[in-house]
Each structure stands twice: as structure tokens, then as C-alpha cells.
Amino acid sequence: MVEKSASLQEGDAAPQTRIQRAKRRQILEAGLTVFSEAGFRGATLDRIAGEAGLSKPNLLYYYPSKEAIYEALLRDLLATWLHPLQAIDPKGEPVEEILAYVERKLQMSRDFPRESRLFANEIVQGAPRIMPALEGELRDLVDTLAKVIKGWIAAGRLAPVDPHHLLFSVWSLTQHYADFDVQVRAVLNEDDPFPGAEIHLDTLFRRLLTP
Amino acid sequence: MVEKSASLQEGDAAPQTRIQRAKRRQILEAGLTVFSEAGFRGATLDRIAGEAGLSKPNLLYYYPSKEAIYEALLRDLLATWLHPLQAIDPKGEPVEEILAYVERKLQMSRDFPRESRLFANEIVQGAPRIMPALEGELRDLVDTLAKVIKGWIAAGRLAPVDPHHLLFSVWSLTQHYADFDVQVRAVLNEDDPFPGAEIHLDTLFRRLLTP
DNA sequence: CGTTCTTTTGACCGATTGGTCAAATCGGAA
DNA sequence: TTCCGATTTGACCAATCGGTCAAAAGAACG
């Protein structure tokens, strides 16, 4: 147990005790709550520290700055957020593959609304810190999938649609229920919008995509 | 030239000279730019003042506080924002009425992206200042239109869809192109996403709604 | 017990922010 | 011109913010 902490950033191995890992998780959990509610600039270290049950200097002992917490969150969550997209199977039945993707995304809006709002805040304000990932990882993933969709359409197994705009539609329709939750609930009569949303989106995409 | 204007605002009479009105418009214009980029908390009076070409105390001579500017903006823009909805004609041809509404909303995303982002910022962060309007004006408008749509469906002139979720779909799909503009452009190959978006959304809603 | 490393904290700092105020300046009517 | 209200501004203030630091408090181990 000599080299306790060499370089604790990404890239290198980051040897951490179980306590350190637990505290960092606490901090990221608190950061997720606060950043998703208030955006980067609206969040304060005091609130994050309070939410995590730590003092402000103690929080800064584990993460060197507010930015470090925010960027750690963005980095960690991007993979999770993109996962449903990667799970689409090019060998599957096209319409059902996309409908399943829509349902997975909708489930994420229901189960992880903070994550959705974190990205929404970031992107609405110009994506100042996640732009590289958008133009890199995301774009590559999207381009790959666009080709798959084009193949499906060429084979007559999917109604002709612009693949990119199809993906935008999936994102906006599903994430709307997390990001604009308060508006949805203010306008809707029911308490839980998701049962209705699931049926609606299934219908919508089925009609759009069935050849 | 005493009583220039009687009561153009809500509440009390607010007599204003032409100069006052012009400066206030400058300030609201600058405020729209800054608030839509940074959200309420991210915006600073200095930036708004700079954008408006005024000193900070001078700005505060026309509006008593940062909140006052922000709320004036929200209040003034809500009507504009809701206008395309009110323009739906219950006596019209159902599918075409809704398609026209979609196109109007998409045009607004293209022509007034700042306004769209202003609301997006507000709502993503819990709509702390516009909630009453959501539960009042907006909800009433939506409920009225929901009945019209239900009537259309009952008459077999529109495919059966949940009216509320239909409206959510219109909002999310159209506003996405304004609010998540940077993401759309980062992923897309074209420069201007709107021509493609218009075709796509027309197809999408036509297939969804045609009985 | 003492020693050494890790963790926690109170006190503090400089920068920024929203907002105030008194004084200066402007602009038009007489 | 003079006068008077409307407008503009530099100087300033209190609160808040992100972040530092030295010292205290634990923990681990012999």
C-alpha cells in the first residue's frame, strides 16, 4: 500500500481506497442532483457539499474544483446515455428494433430524469464543455446507425425516413418527458405521464416506420 | 402631451415617453439574448447592460431589478409563443390544421430560437417563475384544444391519438431544433437542418394523424 | 503509548454580482 | 438665457461565490 495516489485522473490507473471511492460517489450523486436542477453556473459548491453531507473544503479535497465534478459527471454519464443506441441490432427486425430503442430511451427519462436534465442544461446553453464528445463519439455512433437504417430502407423493411431526423425525433420525444417534466405535469391531468407516453410513442413510430 | 399611453401593461397605467419605450425595448432585446444563452442565474446585469449599450445603473433606471427584466420577457413572450396554437381552426380540415400548426411552430424555432431557449432554460430548471402561467393560460388553452381534437377523432376525421401527448409531440419535435441546435448541428452533415426537418415532420405527423 | 499518513474543518481571501446613491449631465420649455 | 425634470454615471456596498490554508482530528500500525 505504498503508492496510495499517483495520478487519480482518467487515463492512468487511479488507485483508491474503498472510502475514497464511496465519498466520490456521494459527491457525484449530490452533484448530479444540484447540477441537473440548476445548471453549471446555477449550482454552488455549498449546495453540493450540503447535499453530499460534507463541508466545502472537504469536498474540494476529493475534487479539485467545481468544474472537475461537473466534467466527471458528464464523462461518466455520456456512456450510460448512449448505451441504448448501441444496443440496436443491425440484424434484428427494423421496426421492432427502433421501437425497442424508443422504449429504452423513454424508460431512461422515467428512471434517470436528472441525467437527462444535466445534458439538457448543458446543450441548451451551447454545450460549452461537451461539444467535443458530440462531434466525436456521438456523431460517429449516429453515422454508423444512419447507414444501418439506410440499408433497412433500401431493403424495403422500413418506410423511407431521413435517418438523422428520425434519431432527433426519438431523442426529443423521449427526453421531453424528463426535461420538460414540470410543463407536462402542469398541463396534463394524470399524475404519471409515462403510461400514456409509452402507448403514444409506440403508435407514432409504428405508423411512421412500417413500410 | 401628457397622457401618451394609458394602460398598455397589465396592472396600473404606465405612461411612457417614446424614448423610454425605445430604451426598454433595447433592454428586453439584450436581455433576451443573454438570458436565452445563460439562463436566469447565468445572466449578469453587466452583460445585459453591455449588450444593450447602457451602463448598469442606467439599465436599473429602466427596470428595477434583474428579475423584473426576466419576468417582463417571460410575460411578453408567452403570448407570442402560444399564438400558433390559438390559430388552429376547429372548423378546418383536421390533419391539415395540425400540420400547419407544426409548420408554424417549426418556423418559430428557426426564426426565434432565443425565445425558444429562454423558455427551455426556464422549464428545464423547474419553471420557478412561469409555473402559474403553465397551470393557468397554457393548461386552459390545451384543454380547449384537446376537446376539439377529441371531436375530430370521434368524427373519424383524425386517427385516434391522445390529444395531450400529440401536443407534447409537436412541441418537443419542433422546439428541439431550436433548443438543441448545437447538438443537431454537431451530428448533422448539412448546415441548415430546417429543410430536412420540415419534410420529416410533415411525413411523421401525416402518417400519425391520417385516419 | 507515539508516529505517520489521511481526512476534516474553521477561518479567511479575492473576484464577481445585484443593487444603491449622490452628483453630474442632458434636453426641452419659457 | 435660465430653470427643472429626466437621464446617465462613477463610486461604492453587502452578499455570495469558488477556492486556499494551516491546523486539528482520525485512523493505522508497531
From TrEMBL, chains A, B:
InterPro entries hit by this protein: Homeodomain-like_sf, HTH-type_TetR-like_transc_reg, HTH_TetR, Tet_transcr_reg_TetR-rel_C_sf, Tscrpt_reg_YcdC_C
Gene Ontology BP term (one): negative regulation of DNA-templated transcription
PANTHER family, alphabetized: HTH-TYPE TRANSCRIPTIONAL REGULATOR RUTR
Record bears the keyword Cell membrane: no
Ranges for domain HTH tetR-type: 21-81
Source organism of the structure: Antarctobacter heliothermus
One of the record's GO molecular function terms: transcription cis-regulatory region binding
UniProt lineage: Bacteria, Pseudomonadati, Pseudomonadota, Alphaproteobacteria, Rhodobacterales
Keywords: DNA-binding
Coiled coil ranges: none
One Pfam family named in its UniProt record: TetR_C_3
Superkingdom: Bacteria
Protein name: Transcriptional regulator, TetR family
PROSITE patterns: HTH_TETR_2
DNA-binding region: 44-63
